Amino acid sequence: MIQLQSADQLKRATERARAGKLFVQATAMFRHYRVTNRENRNAYIVNFFVRAGKRFGYCTCLAGVVNNTACKHLSVAAGLHMIRRAARRVRGDG
Ligand SMILES: [Zn+2]
């Protein structure tokens, strides 16, 4: 689990994600995303949550758990999450 503090924090991971072949899907669970690597078919679940007013992200992959850094899955999921959040705001339901 890592705290999401800035866009810069995710920038390098986003670059890594572009190099890989990652595919992000929203799941039926609120704030949960499935990230699939098209090359090796590995899939991880990323979830975002707020605790004490701070935003956090969690990924089920080893990098996300061990290194306490933004892994590439978390980074690409954050991109989709921000787009969806902005869309909800436009519709006026969140
Ligand atoms: Zn990950």
H/E element string?
EHEEEEHH
Structural class: alpha+beta
* Number of β-strand runs: 5
The largest sheet is: 5 strands, antiparallel
Strand content: 25-35%
Mean pLDDT: 81
Bound molecules: zinc ion
First-to-last CA distance: 24 Å
Percent range for helical residues? Answer: 40-55%
- In angstroms, what is the radius of gyration? 13 Å
Query: Quaternary arrangement of the chains shown?
Result: single chain
Write structural notes for this entry.
With 94 residues, the protein is an alpha+beta fold. It has one domain. 40% of the residues lie in helices and 30% in strands. The chain has three helices and five strands; from the N terminus they run E-H-E-E-E-E-H-H. It has helices at residues 7-19, 62-66, 72-91; strands at 2-3, 22-26, 32-37, 43-51, 54-59. The radius of gyration is 13 Å and the shape is globular. It starts with a strand and ends with a helix. Zinc ion binds at residues 44, 59, 61, 63-64, 71, 73-74.
